[in-house]
Amino acid sequence: MDIYNQILDENELKYHKINDEIFKEVLTEFFEKVDSSYEIRSDMDYTDKFLVLLNEYIYHSNYIVPFYEILNKYHYNMKQEIKDAIFELGNLRKTSRNSKLIKKLLNSPVIQDISLKERKKYEIYSEKYGTFSFELASKYFRKNSELKDYISSTVLAQECHSHAYYMSKIFKDYYAITSLCRYYFKGNYYHSYTYDKDSNLIFDLCSNAVFIKDEFDDLFETNEILVVKNKDLEEQLSIADFNSIQPESRRKLLRLALLKQSLNLEPDKNLDKKVYTKTIHK
């Protein structure tokens, strides 16, 4: 196993498996002790089964309270409810379904209100965590035809590293950031996004969302491991000898973050070619 896959396994893949096992325990307990009538497709991992059960059944049933009692027993990260709500709202293609989606999301115990202002900016209020606001990236970049077309024609889910790398080609004065973010129950996952320092805005195309950085960091509980100015990114990839990776590879930005993590470098400290060459040949 190379150093990149080793770090990825230690910090994300391992925790994906652990969280999936916890979801299995949650679902097993729910079906055994509360309700066994709902059938879920067997060709999904337990994380996806949980999301299907929650969105298609629990939110429309009388089992919300007992279901969340089980989740809390396993120390469920309730902020994930807000992150998932933002993802659903941002990726909704048919605006005619907006009211129906909001009504469903308000069944979450930690979401008390969702409002849409001027048809582009959402505010989610949580008694427990406060207010989080975001603007649709598709609205924010409506005058940028290249990016607008990219957002409308691309499947945005689960391709955060690709999105941040794509935006690095367009916005040279912005920054690409990769962070460790808190998972559903235990551990972290890697997440990449774009930052405009002048406006203090985060662009997270996975959710088609634009955030104020402080609110984003609070919600995602970020631990930054890579912060690189977009105009320096290709040089950094060249030093790390990643240019052999295909340009469309979703691994490019992530591998650079993993490399910096393995070298224990500060997130915003660029690789120095001489120092890096000496390090890898020790």
Account of the 3D structure:
The structure is a single chain. Strand 1 (113-117) and strand 2 (121-126) form a beta hairpin. 48% of the residues lie in helices and 18% in strands. An eight-stranded antiparallel sheet has the order 1-2-3-7-6-5-4-8, sandwiched between helices. It is globular and about 60 Å long. It has helices spanning 3-33, 46-56, 64-73, 79-90, 98-105, 137-140, 145-153, 160-170, 213-220, 230-239, 251-262, 273-280, and strands spanning 113-117, 121-126, 130-136, 175-182, 188-196, 201-204, 209-212, 223-229. It is α+β, with helices and mostly antiparallel strands. The chain has two domains: 1-76, no CATH class; 136-280, no CATH class. 32% of the residues are buried.
